[in-house]
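Structure ticket #2291
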Amino acid sequence: MRATGIAGFAFVLALGLGVSTAASQQANGTISGKATDEARQPYSDYAVQLRDVTTGQVTTTRPLDQQGLFSFTGVALTRPYLVELFHTKERRVICTEGPVTLTATQTLKSDVSINCGKAPAALWVLLAGAGAAAAIAVAARSVSR
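Resolution: structure written out below.
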């Protein structure tokens, strides 16, 4: 009877671990694309990094492959990321795309194209924040008069 109880417990434990592993796999997605419009050969001089917009931290970095392509797997869902092209020898960010946010219904974003020809997303975010702060300051000033 005791052996049956232990075997039953082991079965429930294994089942629970299997469910949590499956659930954790479903909580991740993939972001991929190309950087061929901006990176010049050799592509080995470049990497692409994911920056979490919420924390400002780079979460992962991948080198470009020989065709100028990149792919990030295991990306957490519901978090906004900027996709940055980084020149490894010059140690600087060349361009930024995004923000890109994966969801439970869209776990794959495979058409990210890093293109410096348009205004960087990070610039738009900063300008929007500065504009909002200026509007609040003007409104607060006019109320106090």
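Closing remark: The two ends are 83 Å apart (CA to CA).
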